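To the structural biology subgroup,

Please find below the input and predicted structure for Peptidase C45 hydrolase domain-containing protein, which we are adding to the shared reference set this quarter. The sequence is reproduced verbatim from the submission form. If anyone notices a discrepancy with their own records, reply to this email rather than editing the shared folder directly, so we keep one authoritative version.
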Amino acid sequence: MQPTLFRSIDLSTSDNAWTALFQAFWPAYRSWFVDKKGTQINHKELALAEQQLEHHMPELMPIYRKLVRLTGNDPVAAQFLTLYRPPAYLINCSQAVLQTEEPMLIRNYDLSPELSENTVTHSNWLGRKVIATNECLWGADDGMNDTGLALSLTFGGSQQVGDGFGIPLIMRYILQTCTTVPQTIAVLKRIPSHMAYNVTAIDAAGDFATIMVGIEGNIHVTRERTITNHQQQVVWSQQAQFSKTIERKQFLDEFLQQPTCTPETMTAAFLQAPLRSTQYDKSFGTVYTAVYQPQSGRMRYVWPDREWSHSFDDFKDGDISVQLLPALLSTQTSENTYADTHADHVTGVMRDILENMLQHITPALLPNPQASIQLSEALQVQNYEWIQFANDFARIWTKADGQQNPVNDLPRQPAQQIDVESVKASKAFHSKPKRIALVFH
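Predicted structure (tokenized):
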């Protein structure tokens, strides 16, 4: 897995900054948008989309018109930028509010790094400064404004699609026009979303809410301090099982009740399982952990081995390269480490780890020392599969004659062979969530 490049872009400096962002991401967005819409441009749909945008979010129209001009008045880009009735897309995330001396909003953004913009922007549109994780060219997945309001979203767990706007643009609108949690709730009641999402908001006064947004203006306001990828109940069981949304929510709720829960320990928890995911090949890997402290106007991206901070007082253009590896593996290992740990065959660094482990096991303590020798030899085979390794490793702990382990007086259950076909079938069950097919790295 190649390192992922994250960028910071100050859009308040000149129009050229957004134009460069547009030129970098638009070709892939256009391909996805035209493919899903089935036509290059439908002028009636464009007119309706602009009418709906002006009706629901009139304050954004000057920005919208300016951005359309910067695209060269491309009608496809114009329709895309309205984010009205966009194709379906989803993300899998976790987020929590920490009520400390300075309230914090912490979230994991779970997708594939190849399917996201990986860009944090600073803007000063309409006289309101905003720092946000960019989405759909001018929307936001999470962000804060200079009044102390911070927002973050997660997928709401439903496949249903209705009339409405893509949630990233609604998030942008809130950050541009709202200053408090009650104002945020009022906007989410008024503006229809085309899919179900959960929006968590905190403001400078310390107020917070998690709003479960349904399609076409249906919302449920809660005081939940944690949320993952379902709402009042699970309605898409396959996605819930795949993303472990119930387990992650339960973990967060329990963690918040612990006396050891602090900003430091909570941030560390987001960097570990079950909150941090490494299923990048299934579009369910943690791309970044974001920590927002809106009262002081600071935010940071956090990874297991580094941080990247931004603030209203000191926002700079730049970039950072991050190797998104499993938490227990050093980022100093080769770029193939991640692939090695998730491939069907035992290769590379994991082969070395397993061989080293076997060398430190005393043969006399094993029920079946010969199986240990055979396993060491098998690890040298080029196409040695993980499932076969599991079976061979199990044989180490079972005597060939079925007798009890002399080192342990407790009886052992016979080792069970793993059904290879069943395991492969269970992998195929979790289909990859569909979203924008963007490849930048």
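Summary notes: The mean pLDDT is 84. The first strand starts at residue 4 and ends at 10.

Regards,
Lab coordination
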